[in-house]
Design goal:
By secondary structure, the chain is α/β, with parallel strands linked by helices. It is built from 20 helices and 31 strands. The structure holds adenosine-5'-monophosphate-propyl ester (PRX).
Amino acid sequence: MKIIQSLTDYHNEYRRSVEQPEIFWADIAGDFVWKTKWSKVLEWDFHKPEVKWFIDAKLNITENCLDRHLPQRANQTAIIWEPNNPRDEARHITYAELHREVCRVANMLKAHGVKKGDRVCIYMPMIPETAYAMLACARIGAVHSVVFAGFSAGSLTDRINDAGCNIVLTADGAYRGDKIINLKGIVDEALQKCPDVKTVLMAERTGTKPPMQAGRDYYWNDELKKVNEICPAEETDAEDLLFILYTSGSTGKPKGMVHTCAGYMVYTNYTFRTAFQYREGEVYWCTADVGWITGHSYIIYGPLSAGATTLMFEGVPSWPDWGRFWQVVERHRVNIFYTAPTAIRSLQQAPLEFVRRHDLSSLRVLGSVGEPINEEAWQWYHKNIGKGKCPVVDTWWQTETGGFMISPISDVLPLKPAHAGLPLPGVQPAVMDEQGKEITTSPAEGRLVIKYPWPSMARTIYGNHQRFKETYFSTFPGYYFTGDGCRRDSDGYYRITGRVDDIIIVSGHNLGTAEIESAITEHSSVCEAAVVGYPHDIKGQGIYAFVVGYTMPPELEQEKLRQEIRDTVARIIGPIAKPDKIQFVSGLPKTRSGKIMRRILRKVAEGDTSNLGDTTTLLDPNVVEEIKRGAIG
Ligand code: PRX
């Protein structure tokens, strides 16, 4: 693979990737270990939709993340694990050790009956066992479905059942700053509605000794003692499932995005090395949780397949104080630091003393992901963390894309604050106008689509290909629709402006408004709810709920009811989905056909009620006046 080192390289590589995509990707794929090479690079049809990469190739991704590194880097650190409490010691797990642990966990899974193709639910904290578990699944060709350990029992139940998992890997508890989260308790509650789950393997982290159900629950360490460390890598097909990962949809339940083995491996490796210009021996730290796609692609698979040293952090940025991230950077001499705008904005609020106290001179590259980064946060990050010398690599991508799509290339592409920038080689974005026509000139503003397949694109929604087609390939037939709006300037640089559907991004997490609405209406006093996003200084977007009760709650009882509604949402989805603002209203603005006019609600939530546009088509225009009067500023 050619490493892009200059602007000319970029343009040459980009041109080649568009003119001869199959040759381009075959060259890159040539660097990996294959059990059998492909007979054809690509078959695709965005109308069906169907996409296959590296057809007939056989491989195992863990041979590429582990075995192939052993001759040169057995003793190099693969994972630095920094625990929640800074007073506890960090662990350095070498490639040899990681290989051994993955094989042992793989054998433990096999001993519990897990076979190729089985789905394994992983509901675990940020501990090394979680990385072993993911790779162990991949080792034996099982499909992992990691559920972020901040989700509630209800969300976990839905995901376990949707993926048809019959085994759950978890831990007794999770540390989050000064709190302990009772993970096993949440699993127990979730499993009351998961009749197919026969086995739970529990790692011990917090030592909280939760009750164990005989015949179902096993201690991880006891089971591990029964197996050896030799586990040959199962042969998987290029298009076999590697994992399922759920993401919120604008309607209905979360979608289980399906990623497959070969394309995902090639692409996450290529983009990791290209965007960050990873150099041999560097320490790389992505602060995401492995429960999200960022953790999958850029804590585990991308860095490990590149033979990098990847840091896994169990804690939170604010505990014991706001200097925690910078302490970790200093302690481990981190070279590449990759985080989310929401974290940057909250760190920005803390006194600068927390930054100044630490030596950040090891940093070479800064990254951002998850939501548009506002210019102020970009400048603060660049100046105070990067000391004006580290490029800010603002990577735009999605759970569905598997890897970076539009992103600066560190030190190569000239930066523009708050712009994701140019497409990476192999990525062919386009901007569509309101009529669904491609805008071929720049500057342009419209909806962001991708015209041509890339290797790590999701192949389907688990168990629902029709929904996959409707969500991503029907708005603009023949194109993959991202759900995002964007602007492209005259230099061809993209700036992502945010979602154009009913998904809101709260602290970098995608949440479907429909899902939150349905959780709110689970409260016995609520008859109907509408949820919209509004600009929030730290979270990017906050959650604003308009709630219709069976009766209008008296003023004095409203705060209590708000708290109950928030608790209901936390119980059903998870604390991240709790509404920030709840306004009680006697009705929602609806058209005569019964459709909620969210445009009006969005304006009210944004605090802009001066011009609500045409309200004459509303069934009852009076509700708008009431909503305006009661708006929460
Ligand atoms: O709206 C875009 C926003 O996050 C969405 C994808 O969210 P998710 O699937 O959870 O993946 C997050 C991690 C890749 C996108 O549709 N988004 C992500 N990165 C950026 C972004 N918006 C602007 N700039 C980014 N760098």
